[in-house]
Specification:
Length: 400
Amino acid sequence: MGVRGLQSYILAKCPDSLIPIDLTGTSGVTKKRLIVIEGWSCLRSVYGPHMDFICGGQYQEFRASIRRFVNTFQQVANCELVVFFAGGVSQEERAEWARRKSHNRDTIGLVMQSLRQKGYSPDRKHFLPNETHVQVFRQVLLSCHVKVVSTPHSTGRAMLDYAHKNEAYGILANDSDFIMVNAPRYFSLHHLRISGNTISTMMIDRDKIAESLDLPLTLFPLLSCLLGNDIVSFELLEPFHSRLLALVDEEDGEGKKREVSDGLQLVGAVITFVRELEPEVQTDITGNISGILEKVLPDAEDKEELRALFLRGLEQYNETTVAPSATDSNTDNSPFTVSFLSNASTRVIKIIKSVGMILLSFMARKYQLPFLSWLVVISEAGEKSSDPRVDVLNHLWRFA
């Protein structure tokens, strides 16, 4: 889900860290390049700005857009795509997930208000994909022979591990967590442009970000936790943020106040706080976390619980690679899909069995073979299907 406000700050304040990339301009490349994509963010990019989203969705146009997207990457840019979808939300990330869902409800309210007052669809920024969009996206990707991976929880760590293990050319997403860790070439979905046979985007260079912010890469995980991420909630940090914003110099005028409203000033204030920590603290963040928290949240009631929470927040950025999850497959292996496929296999077996019973019954009646009739009766008594289609087949023999 990312670090709140960080990517917007980098786009506004660190332009040197954005490197233009033309994925189709690499001449002489014969080996396919692996691109790992975050599915939810990609959906928002592929669903074109000209498509209606208020009335449910223009799915025919959406399918065509997905196919153009995949074909351009596969045939023109010579790239292999692997798309990750989140299967659920972990307990630690639930508070941030709930906050974002609440924000989505507010967005829906703005959409309805715009429809009532103006009578037409609001700005594109209010687009919220529904579950049908997600299912159509997954199925069309699979039909285009794109590998789709469902993760048990959020996609960030699984994408990073998969990219490292399979030597991916880059990660295409809109998640500032990939700035916090050593991801192989983080490409911005926000800047992705596909025009004819050209694919262009921006690569966000974390080394240049560190240079621009005058902040060592080793302090990025702490910066993430102090801004608020999937583990350390933004609401928990509100007293700390309020104190930092109270120090904003009023003499800078409207421009500075506008930055406060956009959240940029808060990010800058937290960066300054981390940068000004004592050198001995910066060299051992984990060992000095208690002292840092005394400065950040001095009035916290349960210090040990707070310390454990921040340690978990820092640990998520540990640059250790684990084996990819068992969900990696050329097809979608979400728990729902696995269950569906298993049930489908059971139904097919039952239908085949029922067809066999029809044939046995027909032969028993035509050739007057009593032992076959008894076999049919015993088989029917042994198992009765709950699938009405199978039951129909079980009784067709009466009309044979």
